[in-house]
């Protein structure tokens, strides 16, 4: 299983994938006893998320062929949205945009979409607001800031208006690194280990600073804690003081 487990109330939810309602499974978090099993999808690499959409608390799952919402208590299906990609590879996490809509993106030529979920009770529907190829997140999740999505479009940093899907700019060949949002800026770790600070603004692509942080292929997310920026890859780890 590639996805991280999700703890919801007294359950831990995992995504083993498989037929015969073995795709999503919930266990009692204290005893390990099975609580419910749901759906029959082949799984991808996206971790399940506990969100509230259309006023309904639910678990959003992205499999190899679709996104769907499940009732946390019993695993029943609330809605489903087709999201087929080449070889069934979905990796980046969806972004909750507002009370009814979420952004989803995949690489390998697929692109991105804004999806709206509406309904009440147990009757919900998911529809496409827009879909295009302006943001193709291969395995690097985007971030949302003041109505704009910033992410690596097949290795090139891009900015997209989340309401319309319009691309505002595209620049900065950072490869398959990762993007973090902090204090109105994008912290980008490139796949070569460079650290880049970019303004999170739709006006234009503007680098504020750039330096070599670590050596070697770097696909890991950076992290901020206690005034320090932590970066790592398979070879080394480094901490930088950013409190000043």
Question: Descriptors for this entry?
Answer:
244 residues; mainly beta; Methylamine Dehydrogenase, Chain H; 4-stranded antiparallel sheet; 51% strand
Fold blueprint:
Elements: E1 6-8, E2 11-14, E3 24-28, E4 34-38, E5 49-53, E6 56-62, E7 66-70, E8 77-82, E9 95-96, E10 101-106, E11 111-120, E12 123-132, E13 143-145, E14 148-153, E15 156-161, E16 167-173, E17 178-182, E18 185-189, E19 194-199, E20 207-212, E21 223-225, E22 228-232, E23 237-241
Antiparallel strand pairs: 1-2, 2-3, 3-4, 5-6, 6-7, 7-8, 9-10, 10-11, 11-12, 13-14, 14-15, 15-16, 17-18, 18-19, 19-20, 21-22, 22-23
Give a quick rundown of the structure:
With 244 residues, the chain is mainly β. It is built from no helices and 23 strands.
Task: Describe the 3D structure.
By secondary structure, the chain is an all-beta fold. The chain has a domain of 128 residues: YVTN repeat-like/Quinoprotein amine dehydrogenase (Methylamine Dehydrogenase, Chain H, 7 Propeller), CATH 2.130.10. Helices cover 0% and strands 51% of the residues. It is built from no helices and 23 strands. The strands form 6 sheets. Strands 1-2-3-4 form a 4-stranded antiparallel sheet, with no helix packed on it. The chain has a 4-stranded antiparallel sheet with strand order 5-6-7-8, with no helix packed on it. A hairpin with a 2-residue loop joins strand 11 and strand 12. The radius of gyration is 19 Å and the shape is globular. The N and C termini lie far apart (40 Å).
